[in-house]
Amino acid sequence: MQSNPQRYTVTAALPYANGPVHIGHLAGVYLPADIYVRYLRAAGRDVKFICGSDEHGVPITIRAQKEGVTPQQVVDKYHAIIRDSFAEFGVSFDIYSRTSSKTHSEVASGFFKKLYEENKFIEQTSQQYFDEKADQFLADRYIVGTCPNCGNENAYGDQCEKCGSSLSPTELISPRSMLSGNQPILRETKHWYLPLDQYESWLREWIVEGHKADWKANVYGQCKSWIDQGLQPRAVTRDLDWGVPVPVAGAEGKVLYVWFDAPIGYISATKDLLPDTWETYWKDSGSKLVHFIGKDNIVFHCIIFPAMLKAHGDYILPDNVPANEFLNLEGDKISTSRNWAVWLHEYLQDFPGKADVLRYVLCANAPETKDNDFTWKDFQARNNNELVANLGNFVNRAVVLTHKFFAGKVPAVSGGLQGIDQDALAQLAEFPQRIGELIDNYRFRDALNELLNLTRVGNKYLAETEPWKLIKTDEARTGTVLHVALQIAAGLVTLMEPFLPASAAKLGEMLRVEKGSWQAAGRPDTLAAGHEIGAAALLFDKIEDATVEAQVQKLLDTKKANELANAVAEPAKEDVSFDEFGRMDLRVGTVVAAEKVAKTKKLLKLTVDTGLDQRTIVSGIAEHFIPEALVGQQVLVLLNLAPREIKGIQSQGMLLLAENADGSLQLMQPGQPVRPGSHVA
């Protein structure tokens, strides 16, 4: 662990440009990274914050094929959505680049070529599925078949999403190509592999022995488990036409495997940002490299990418990889395929101006050591009880009272500071170091709680001094109290900024003070006596029950839609003979009258023109249809059903309806009007 680095290179996992980003991404990776970087900047450190879109790989090509567009069009669309979402949430990248850029292709190709020319790869020939009709080798996700473990007929070549089993394409029963639908054949293909087994002893020394004390337990444990199981060579190329072409002779139709290509995106993005000095941040021993990732990327950033950097020989290694666990949503795992997520761009539409509220809640409930759960009720409670009633309340009282009693000018200290004043300012002085040490050690949730503790100090101070009462008897003493309270508020401008940048800026405007250095945030004299502050404005406002109930309902609607989409039809009934079926007289009729049957909830009495007569049919559909709306509708009627008395009414037939998975009913009707009495053939 570097204690006094000259500079910092901080990366956040490249989001995959195959869809928008959600709260799980923000909580797990981008928010803690942004808090860390904003703090480092305030502390006067030299830091570059690097990210960009990961734009290669098979899922991109599959989405492009489904949508009838090019892979470039897919990544252009989602790159813009993701970039804009991050910007609106105040994630302060120094650059947000992309792996489809020319610079990235050059850097990734150069990286591969150096390892290739120094014989750091091994070549292996293997059998891989090939689609003869499409005339191409098939990536794992382009192959579907029956899972050997659970019988799911639509398992992918790398995983069965029904039972969760990891698979290889050759394990699938009756494999078929997603490109043509045909059964693929096995054909030989050559690829280059990074021999991770050759780096196993070095990785054991570097991680298992070298980072036992400073890496998070979940990161260290996963790495140790992988190393203990023994490492195997890993392919760095694949047969595909979307990606960085393999830059050696005889590799036509092959690209760099996305797992090899993507982390090099950090380097290429830095080169785009700093064309002349980028190497200082990646090759100088005075630079500290920190990767922020989710736990699904631990192996790539702690074992595979460091092995790549070690093989290359010119690059520094990550000092820390503070990966978070996963964030769940309302007790269920976030799932993009099931649309069980809170998408950042949708949140911004539903809660305009409240990006900081989500930042606060996600940090306060961050999955730093275990999976945590986001609920809309907790979101509301934290906003109302902590942001509004604590932080916002303290600032509002200090500013409003200053305007009310001292014409909006910071009053002078009169008669010296009393013990209670000195204690409040002494506590203020401790918070920059206290919060800073926690951020330096990647304990962002605890750091945020310390920030809230400072606002509690302010609120307690005002509650005990009661300046709104004191003004009646001692104006000078009231001025001293508000002077102290405003110094605490001024300290918050800097200390809030890593966590709540928009709110910190708003507070700075209110106090008419610029964000200062981190070390100076605890000073007792940030605001001089006589300094004129701006008008009071609410930093946060209350979120009402109806607002969060609407968000919960949106999720419930999503769950219901998923259940309907995945509903399994009931098994077929026993066969009937053709003669039995032929005896049913199915006709088209027109409803000429409809009314509820008295003293019942479910029954309607219908008069139907069958083309032969007008007859009465009693049907249990009153909870699904308005009687008046049925009049004039054409329906399908089983005409020769034996009459039956229902609630004293002779019913002469049956309507044909379909029942949805949610229990709702739909009339079976002809596609266009036909003559009543027409046979249903």
TrEMBL record:
InterPro entries: aa-tRNA-synth_I_CS, Anticodon_Met, Met-tRNA-synth_bsu_C, Met-tRNA_ligase_1, Met-tRNA_synth, Methionyl/Leucyl_tRNA_Synth, MetRS_core, MetRS_Zn
Motif 'HIGH' region location, chain numbering: 15-25
Biological processes, Gene Ontology terms: methionyl-tRNA aminoacylation
EC number: 6.1.1.10
Keywords, in A-Z order: Aminoacyl-tRNA synthetase, ATP-binding, Cytoplasm, Ligase, Metal-binding, Nucleotide-binding, Protein biosynthesis, RNA-binding, tRNA-binding, Zinc
Major localization listed first in the record, in broad terms: cytoplasm
Ranges where the TRNA-binding domain occurs: 580-681
Cofactor note: Binds 1 zinc ion per subunit.
Function: Is required not only for elongation of protein synthesis but also for the initiation of all mRNA translation through initiator tRNA(fMet) aminoacylation.
Protein known as: Methionine--tRNA ligase
Organism: Hymenobacter metallicola
Gene: metG
